[in-house]
Design goal:
mainly alpha
């Protein structure tokens, strides 16, 4: 999971989204807004229909690798995901800033689960998801535990073990809000629990290391600029961009990586 950059949605698309949101907001009481958000989103978030055609196009460009999920970075991103679930926050159902592009294996289990620190600024936790049959009432004001890669830099909250387990490791002390946010995000999305993700991160590490080695050999053998650029493009298109970010961040602590980046310091500028 890595920070994603929002280049900005065009004004016409934003205006259409805002008009849809205004319909939800004006539909009546909170339970009526929840119903309207579900009904209207289901009808209007069609792949081939503006404005969601434009929404999906821009979200694809924001993904790491080749359109990889903004949560796990492994599977193809094909679902517009609401960071704050629309069943809890109908007022954000059509907000551009609340959209991510995710895969089914991440979006499905996440569902409507959403923990908050309540009251804001505290470490007291509240599960906002409603159980079946519970009254449809708005969640209290609170701070999200789930990391939002559009807002948060996940690598400020956890690091990736590149020399053994390829698991994410929390960076902050026990009891801190930062630690709980990291723990909750990793658990909710199964980023350490799904063996396929761990194996894929390990594979990405070896692939990226070999790509860097090949670049050094080709550069030293005076390969054409287009061939050298292809190595950088390979790095950019490799799934699990977090692995590359951590290779750059941790290279001075890992002997073989330090040697590689010392031989090709320009690679530290590759995104």
């Amino acid at each position: 999971m890595i920070r994603v950059v929002d280049p900005g949605l065009d004004v016409a698309t934003l205006t259409r989204l805002q008009s849809y949101q205004s319909e939800v907001d004006g539909s009546g009481t909170y339970p009526m807004q929840v119903e309207a958000a579900a009904r209207m989103y289901g009808a209007r978030a069609r792949n081939d229909r503006s404005p969601f055609r434009e929404v999906r196009t821009l979200l694809r460009g924001m993904c790491s690798g080749v359109e990889r999920c903004m949560y796990c970075e492994d599977a193809p991103a094909n679902e517009v995901e609401h960071v704050r679930p629309k069943s809890l926050y109908p007022e954000l159902a059509f907000h551009w800033e609340n959209f991510l592009f995710a895969c089914g294996p991440c979006n499905g289990p996440k569902g409507n689960r959403f923990k908050l620190f309540v009251p804001p600024g505290t470490t007291s936790e509240y599960e906002a998801a409603r159980v079946s049959g519970a009254p449809v009432v708005a969640p209290p004001a609170g701070d999200s535990l789930l990391l939002d890669p559009r807002v948060d830099d996940p690598l400020e909250f956890f690091s990736l073990d590149l020399v053994g387990t390829f698991l994410f490791v929390e960076r902050h002390p026990l009891g801190s809000r930062e630690r709980r946010r990291a723990e909750y995000t990793l658990e909710l999305l199964g980023l350490n629990r799904r063996d396929v993700l761990v194996r894929a991160r390990r594979t990405a590490f070896h692939h990226l290391r070999n790509a860097l080695r090949s670049y050094v050999v080709d550069r030293d053998n005076k390969a054409a600029p287009s061939e050298l650029a292809a190595h950088a493009e390979t790095v950019r298109n490799t799934s699990h961009a977090t692995v590359w970010a951590e290779m750059k961040r941790q290279h001075t602590k890992i002997g073989k990586l330090n040697e590689l980046f010392a031989a090709a310091p320009e690679a530290l500028a590759w995104p």
